[in-house]
Write a structure and sequence with these properties.
Layout (H helix, E strand, L loop, with lengths): L1 E6 L8 H13 L6 E3 L14 H4 L6 H13 L2 E10 L10 E8 L5 E6 L10 H4 L8 E5 L5 E6 L8 H9 L4 E5 L7 H15 L2 E5 L4 E2 L2 E2 L5 E3 L5 E4 L5 E6 L4 H8 L14
Parallel strand pairs: 1-2, 2-3, 7-8, 8-9
Antiparallel strand pairs: 1-14, 3-4, 4-5, 6-7, 9-12, 10-11, 12-13
Length: 272
């Protein structure tokens, strides 16, 4: 399975429309890959809270239209990072914004959406402005060999919550795809947690971060691909970069057979 992680760099001086077109061009350049991944909130600005309202759109909006066409032009499955989704119906907290991933098929059609479950900001930022998602999302993605691989979708701050990944594991995940806007000041946590999720769940981790500086936040880069064994297969630097990696989805099952740690899981006291 040939995967491309597009570590997009951007700053406050780049108009959103130009950034969307530039990202679409980068996706088109990945023809020949099976899966292409973009970072979290790259169009709206991962930390640019004050502009989220004006840049919000529905899942059939302008960014989705351009990204769907780019996926079709390149003939790839595209996890187009996430958008600030605006929905006509407010959620349980009375807000109408979500941090929502968009997944497109090679025909340009929308395959799935995932609304970020864990909101970053400790009462500000995402928790103040956005609703929380409440659904696990798994998809069967083409594996490049005529089959599919069960893939769990999560976003950035989700990476800090291992119980989410256990739940995805229990639903059959062999791969975790993780778009992010993770800042440079905590990038050591980013790489460590990516390896931890791979090791403890014996899954592939495909974690695509943002580069550049926006809204006074320096982004961490270091997009990373980790094998189910915990070995780092590829890692980007701090600038804009495309990681192109061939992964073997079957390694998850092979490693679980060779080192069957998951078979020894026990929940004390009847916990479920």
């Amino acid at each position: 399975m040939k995967v491309a992680l597009v570590q997009l760099a951007y700053g406050d001086d780049e108009p959103v429309r130009e950034r969307v077109d530039r990202a679409a061009d980068l996706v088109r350049q990945q023809r020949g890959h099976d899966l292409v991944i973009l970072p979290e909130l790259w169009a709206a600005g991962g930390f640019d809270y004050r502009h989220w309202g004006e840049r919000a759109e529905e899942v059939s909006g302008a960014v989705a239209t351009v990204m769907g066409q780019a996926a079709r032009d390149a003939g790839v499955t595209l996890l187009a990072g996430s958008i600030v989704e605006q929905h006509p119906q407010a959620g349980p907290e009375g807000k109408d914004l979500w941090n929502t991933q968009l997944l497109f098929g090679a025909d340009g059609g929308l395959l799935a959406t995932y609304r970020k479950i864990h909101r970053f900001g400790f009462g500000a930022g995402e928790p103040k402005l956005m609703e929380a998602g409440d659904e696990l999302v798994l998809v069967d993605l083409p594996d490049g060999a005529g089959g599919t691989v069960r893939t769990g979708l999560t976003t950035c701050y989700d990476l800090r919550f291992p119980e989410l990944y256990r739940a995805l594991l229990d639903e059959g995940a062999r791969v975790f795809a993780i778009p992010a806007a993770w800042p440079a000041r905590r990038v050591g946590h980013w790489t460590l947690l990516a390896q931890a999720r791979a090791i403890e769940d014996q899954c592939w981790v495909l974690a695509c971060n943002t580069a550049g500086t926006h809204a006074r936040h320096e982004m961490g880069g270091h997009s990373i691909v980790v094998a189910p064994t915990g070995d780092v297969v590829a890692e980007a630097g701090t600038d804009e970069e495309v990681l192109s990696v061939d992964i073997d989805p079957g390694l998850a099952d092979a490693w679980r057979t060779d080192f069957p740690v998951l078979a020894d899981r026990r929940l004390p006291g009847g916990l479920r």
